[in-house]
């Protein structure tokens, strides 16, 4: 984004953007940033779109050898100049300065609390505000998640029929009150009518099948059309899962409006529509985005979080945990997910508050009880039969399958998304969504396992067959000589498969092939789309197929040496549902590269410690296999595809480059644009700002000596100059700009100078030109720097920004360095 909107002597340029040129493609959606969000951005960011070089993302930071606080750009509790010390859109926050501001604010509140009772109460409320904010985030996110679950369940059933007692009842709730419903046919009741009954007056025959088929496709197309049109018209940021962008935001990048009110409203509505349309996507990833939107909006109720970007990101890290907590009913897994997968800065205080917020959200969802089964998810299951050590072999096979699937999916999906970006396909998002939704509905309806929603499919596959189960997956032959009491757990001994089970296995095989293909083209479209449920569905199908195969192998060959000592005739040896669960974990781990948090989430889903070892074996095997084909998970791959300025902590810098090899300017580049501590006029400073696109400028003693004095942000410089022209009498273009502590003597007729030492960072981070880049990269990662100045014997040589590092790393990996921009 070019800063051409800056005008000499006017702060208006900071807000001026072109109507047509400020476009950024995020998660495959063309986004117009010429519209400002209703709230200040949840900021985090780096270079600006369209910039081709230079030091785009500079901000004041503490020097490597300086323990002091950066020069106060604003009073910690009172900002005399509006906008001073804030950030522009698509810039990176300065973590060091933000933390320093918060320490100054806290220090002042503490000192004043000793002076009066009111100040003491203010200190107490300030200390309590973080916990109150976590409570509100948990309540709001849990309530929204409950509403999304209920609405999605209702609209999904609406594709097949309607309840005569009340159209707002889904199929299950409609049949609860019926006295004519039997357990074996609990889905059939007089109050629930299929569309064939309502339109054709019959439930049997080809005409009824065709009517139901056409209505299923009609509703799928209608829901998907409404979802994509709402996203395109009102909130382009609402598309995709949101996790890649949230990871980038949590690293310090500013994307204005990504977590705003409109994004929250539209994403909540369109997520229900997208899930109900039958597309191969889930709501779990987008729920993390929804929870972060709630947190960002609620942050504006508290000054401590509204005015400090680093503090706000602590809340967002907790909100990410809340999103997973309500998605899977796994509060502990949510906290670990935030820590392992999305958070950039996660202090111990955030860990406690994340746990509290996730707990509140889970309690709220439990109170709402969206599924009517006192569980937080539709596919909660409890297994009772123990597993045997020899079963680790099949579990590891599922891990290998999950790793291969994850690597294949990432490569295929990124290739498809890149094609969407670089061809005319990306210009027609509505047509693309409608075509994919139509094809999905057309192929899904004939197969009962693809017709049902992803969560229902996973619930069916996880199910441990009991005596009264009517599912086709529990269609076994009755064996009269089964030894009574030898089975463990649910009382169902292993039995030979019946024809119904073989039919179900064929249908599951076709469903597996369909899910593998359709998920590749679905993820990344212009609708809210999560990846957890489709990945888990693929793994659960593969696991159930393998589980049934193992069950039948053990039944017919119990005399084999591998079964002889633990699988006697009439015993319940193999649990196919357990294999489905392990397969689901393996495939999800292969796609996202989650390990610890994944195992804990699956453990919380099953409620049994006994199955942690199989889950750990599958998760680690899946990660190892997938890492052999590429170390990036799906979210990191999409971050790189979209060119977000994100320094991945998991990626090692193994090259022998020095700071001088990466810094700007290079030999062929123009000289470094700098300000001098004295001798420049207001006009010269404004001319320098107007003629460049850099986000900050080093300040030196003089052009000749190039001895470093400090660093000043472009935004703060413009605001201060504009403020001086408006409020300081006698300031004209020929007035001197001074960064010195004491003003030099001037002629009597000279206009008054503009003293800007208060906005100067006197201790910017510096490295020498011979500093190894692996050390520099670690400094950027661990301190969250925006830029670092390079010196030689105290003389300023150049500057290194996060984008310079990312470009250098891309170049070393034989990738296009110019891809480190918004594509």
TrEMBL record:
Membrane-traversing stretches: 131-155, 216-238, 259-281, 287-303, 315-339, 389-410, 430-449, 504-525, 531-556, 577-603
Keywords annotated in UniProt: CBS domain, Chloride, Endosome, Ion transport, Membrane, Transmembrane, Transmembrane helix, Transport
Top-rank taxon, per record: Eukaryota
InterPro entries: CBS_dom, CBS_dom_sf, Cl-channel_core, ClC
Domain CBS: from-to ranges: 663-729, 759-817
Membrane topology listed for this record: Multi-pass membrane protein
Pfam family, any one: CBS
SMART domains: CBS
Family, similarity comment: Belongs to the chloride channel (TC 2.A.49) family.
Protein name: Chloride channel protein
Gene: CLCN5
